[in-house]
Every structure is written in structure tokens, then in C-alpha cells.
């Protein structure tokens, strides 16, 4: 499907990028009857294994289908467990893994109901007579009332990194049957050998294998992937697990700023990846409809920008970023103690910290609660971390 790009055609919306954020906006525009064109180098289903909370999957389902029931957009894990030196804990909140093929196919179907796609790469966006003009690498230009920039995030200086393997063998000691393992801060530790803090993440996949990932939550500079691979392979060797497929390599910028320019950035391009955990998919998939509704109601670029990344959202991101900076200063033991305490807070308190859509007051309240709940040594390292985080960083 290609856009018929007559030079005089003016689109309501041009979307650059077909990741979850861009495709969700483009599909929502098409279903509302807006003239929309999506520009992307390709339209292949996303390759990443996308995890989200089960209640977020419910919200995504309602947002994309307009109802709570329909094709399963993801696989659900009724239990989510975390493990620290203090022990294993069931968080009492279900987890989910997005069915990329189903969601991607659904959004493409919605888009094809009225929208168009162009295979290409956007190289520039500039203002143009009451709207915006997009230039593609092959010289094509498209004009629109609004350009949505969903080209993903910049590199950032702090990143989450993970090395993942799909494994066969008995994993129940690591990932309890039917559960998702959100964080295990014990499995990858080697007593007496100080290493960068890393946790094991894991979940069963549809083909009967299990995805295990050695994950560095946040580090500046990022932890080299071979280090995480070696730690995971050591654990797999000890547990008698074998690799079943290609590895998954994860690198998520955590502090990339929002893309500048005439377009309205969404998703990772808008700096909306959670600054401490790297999650963004659920929020992006839910936001498409709100952006399309605003355009339909006549909102201009400034209004849509404020909707996506307004003052309240920026304040929340600032607090979450402060939390990340504190974590960056903690060693393995301190990180373990931090999460051992964090997940003892009441569910709504830790959940508020994990959601970039939370009000800043709720995030601040959680941060204070963790500080109060930590043992004295943990509180001291947290206070030192805050002092470090608010000190201006030396320029290199
Ligand atoms: C391996 C991996 C695993 C992840 N796992 C999770 C997870 O479990 N849960 C979660 O919430 N988040 C996860 N993330 C983080 C984040 O949510 C994803 O990066 C997510 O894909 C971001 O969505 P996006 O649409 O904003 O950007 P992207 O997915 O980065 O999409 C950007 C799109 O823009 C296209 N593009 C780039 N340049 C141009 C151009 N010039 N013109 C046109 N198109 C262009 C790209 O081809 C790409 O398709 C993961 C990230 C990675 C890398």
C-alpha cells in the first residue's frame, strides 16, 4: 500500500515511524476518518519481547478495540514475582507479554481502513503555510496540518541493557511455573566478586521455551552486553539450561531528551520511556487515541505537544529521573536492599512509581515512603545518591 502523493495533497497528519507509538497514532487517526499517512522504512512486526502489566494490557485492549473483549493482544501471567536477598515475593499483580503479531496486524488493519503508508525515511520537518512539510530521503515531500514524530529515542548517556536467551530445560527454580519473573537480584550474583548490579528477568514463551534476560536496570556508561551474556551463560550452565534460539539484545536509552523540531514527538521520541525502568509500550499504545481525538477536535501542534508531554508529565519524568540517578550510584548489595524494600510498599505506592502517567505528587510520596522504609544503611546510601544526583554533572 503506497500513498498517492500528488504534490497538492495535504494530509491531516503525517506520522514518521512505525514502532508502537507511531503505528498507534496513525491507526487511531485512520479510524477517526482523518487523512493520515505513515512514513516508515518498513512495516515488519516489532521484534522485541514487550512486557507490560496485565492491567495495562486490559487498558491497551480497550483503547485499541474500543471494548474489553476481543482477540487476545497478549499472553497473561497470573503471578509476578520478585526476589531479593530478603526472599521471593508474589507482587499480587498480573504481568503480560504483548502478542506483537496480533497488535501490529490489528493496527495495520485499522490504518488501511482510510490511511496510507509510504516506505521511506523522514529526513526533515519544517513549518509550511499553516502546517508542516516533511521531506523524505528520496526527495519526496508531504504536507500536513500536523506531523507526528515517532522515530524513536536518541542514544542517551544512561541505558538499560540486557542479554536474553530463549532456553529449554527445567527453569522452575528460577521462574516459578506460570509466573513472570520481574526481577531476581540474587540469581546473577557471585559472592566475593563485585559486579555491576544486574537482575534476572524471565517468562515462558508460546513455543514452550523460556526467555531469560540478564538485565542491567540502568547504568552510565551502559554495562557492556558481553558482560551480561557471560553472567547469563554461567547461570544457564549451572542450571543445565540450553539455548533454543537467537539471543535478544536490549539497549534502552533512559535519559534521551525529546526530539526537537517542528513535528510533535510521541513515544520514545518524546522522551517518554520510563526514566528508571525503560518501559513505554503500554503508554504509547494507549496514547494514540488521545492524540487522534485532539487532532479531530482541531488542536494545533502546541496543544498536541502539551497533551503528550505537558507540565505535569514533565514534573513526573523529572522525579523518576532523579530516582534513576540515585539508583546509578548504588552497588549490588545496596540495589538488592533497595528493591527488597521497594516491593514491600503497598501495591498502589510502588505501582505509582512505575508509571510515567502518575501525578508527580504520587511519585514523590512513593520516593519518601521508600526512604523511610529502608534500614539506616540503605537510607544513608539513598541520601548520598540524592546529593550526587542534584549536583551538576561535570562536562566531558
Ligand atoms: C530489545 C528491547 C526490548 C524492550 N522491551 C520493552 C518492554 O518489555 N516493555 C516496554 O514497555 N518497553 C520495552 N522497550 C523499550 C521501548 O518501549 C521500546 O523501545 C519501544 O519500541 C519504543 O516505541 P516507539 O514507537 O516510541 O519507538 P521505536 O519502537 O524505536 O520505533 C521507532 C520507529 O521509527 C522508525 N524510524 C527511525 N528513523 C526513521 C526515519 N528517519 N523515518 C521514518 N521512520 C523512522 C524505526 O524504524 C522504528 O520502527 C524495549 C526496547 C528494546 C530495544
Q: What keywords describe this structure?
A:
3 domains; 26% strand; binds flavin-adenine dinucleotide; FAD/NAD(P)-binding domain; single chain; 18 strands; alpha/beta; 396 residues; Alpha-Beta Plaits; 8-stranded mixed β-sheet
State the gist of this model.
This protein is of the alpha/beta class and 396 residues long.
List bound small molecules: flavin-adenine dinucleotide
The CATH class of the largest domain is identified as: Alpha Beta
CATH fold-level assignment of the largest domain: FAD/NAD(P)-binding domain
CATH architecture of the largest domain: 3-Layer(bba) Sandwich
Low-pLDDT sequence parts = none
Written description of the protein model:
Helices cover 36% and strands 26% of the residues. The chain is α/β, with parallel strands linked by helices. Strands 5, 6, 12, 13, 14, 15, 16 and 17 form an eight-stranded mixed β-sheet that branches. Strands 1, 2, 8, 9, 10, 11 and 18 form a seven-stranded mixed β-sheet that branches. Helix 7 (311-328) packs parallel to helix 10 (360-373). The chain is globular. Bound molecules: flavin-adenine dinucleotide.
Amino acid at each position: 500500500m503506497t500513498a498517492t502523493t500528488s504534490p497538492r495533497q495535504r494530509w491531516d497528519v503525517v506520522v514518521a515511524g512505525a514502532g508502537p507509538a507511531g503505528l498507534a497514532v496513525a491507526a487511531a487517526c485512520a479510524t477517526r476518518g482523518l487523512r493520515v499517512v505513515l512514513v516508515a522504512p518498513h512495516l515488519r512486526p516489532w521484534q522485541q519481547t514487550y512486557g507490560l502489566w496485565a492491567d495495562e494490557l486490559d487498558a491497551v485492549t480497550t483503547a485499541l478495540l474500543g471494548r474489553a473483549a476481543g482477540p487476545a493482544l497478549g499472553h497473561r501471567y497470573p503471578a509476578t514475582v520478585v526476589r531479593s536477598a530478603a526472599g521471593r515475593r508474589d507482587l499480587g499483580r498480573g504481568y503480560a507479554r504483548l502478542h506483537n503479531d496480533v497488535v501490529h496486524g490489528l493496527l495495520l488493519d485499522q490504518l488501511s481502513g482510510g490511511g496510507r503508508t509510504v516506505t521511506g525515511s523522514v529526513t526533515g520537518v519544517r513549518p509550511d503555510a499553516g502546517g508542516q512539510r516533511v521531506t523524505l530521503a528520496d526527495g519526496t515531500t508531504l504536507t500536513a496540518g500536523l506531523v507526528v514524530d515517532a522515530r524513536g529515542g536518541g542514544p542517551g548517556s544512561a541505558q538499560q541493557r540486557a542479554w536474553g536467551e530463549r532456553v529449554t530445560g527445567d527453569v522452575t527454580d528460577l521462574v516459578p511455573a506460570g509466573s513472570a519473573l520481574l526481577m531476581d537480584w540474587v540469581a546473577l550474583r557471585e559472592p566475593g566478586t563485585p559486579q555491576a548490579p544486574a537482575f534476572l528477568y524471565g517468562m515462558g514463551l508460546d513455543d514452550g521455551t523460556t526467555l531469560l534476560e540478564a538485565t542491567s536496570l540502568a547504568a552510565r556508561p551502559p554495562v557492556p552486553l558481553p558482560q551480561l551474556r557471560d553472567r547469563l551463560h554461567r547461570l544457564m550452565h549451572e542450571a543445565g539450561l540450553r539455548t533454543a534460539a537467537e539471543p535478544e539484545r536490549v539497549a534502552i536509552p533512559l535519559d534521551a531528551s525529546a526530539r526537537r523540531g517542528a513535528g510533535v514527538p510521541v513515544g520514545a521520541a518524546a522522551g517518554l520511556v520510563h526514566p528508571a525502568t525503560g518501559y513505554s509500550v503500554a503508554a504509547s499504545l494507549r496514547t494514540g487515541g488521545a492524540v487522534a481525538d485532539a487532532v479531530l477536535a482541531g488542536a494545533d501542534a502546541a496543544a498536541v505537544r502539551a497533551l503528550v508531554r505537558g507540565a505535569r508529565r514533565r514534573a513526573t519524568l523529572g522525579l523518576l529521573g532523579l530516582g534513576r540517578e540515585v539508583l546509578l550510584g548504588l552497588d549490588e548489595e545496596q540495589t538488592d536492599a533497595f528493591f527488597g524494600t521497594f516491593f514491600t510498599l503497598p501495591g498502589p505506592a510502588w505501582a505509582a512509581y512505575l508509571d510515567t502517567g502518575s501525578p508527580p505528587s504520587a511519585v514523590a510520596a512513593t520516593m519518601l515512603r521508600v526512604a523511610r522504609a529502608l534500614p539506616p544503611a540503605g537510607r544513608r546510601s539513598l541520601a548520598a545518591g540524592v546529593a550526587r544526583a542534584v549536583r551538576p554533572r561535570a562536562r566531558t
